[in-house]
Amino acid sequence: MIRVGDGDGVSLVASQYNDSIWLRMNDLICTNSISENESSLKLDIFPNPSTGLFTIQGLLHDDEIRITNLLGKIVTFGRNNESISLKESGIYFIEIQRNKQKFIQKISIQ
Fold this sequence. Notes:
Shape: globular
Distance between the termini: 26 Å
Strand content: over 45%
CATH architecture: Sandwich
Radius of gyration: 14 Å
CATH class: Mainly Beta
Oligomer: single chain
Structural class: mainly beta
Number of strands: 9
């Protein structure tokens, strides 16, 4: 495996292509919500999967939103944007930071 990413985001990418191994690793690493970062933030992201437009419910005015792709590249960054649109299909991670708490969820764009 090769570790890639920039900043806080580090992802794992298979160095040798093998569907069954990669799918199993994806299931182990990329759960729908990341339990190690559980917090008391009450947020809902829907629909998931989506065709590109989704809503984040429960945001506060100063919440920071960062969306990264599987390689850890930041796709968009901003504050309190309840409706977000992504054009390219794929798997993304939405990270929402409120003070010192983080909420991270995997989303799928079809």
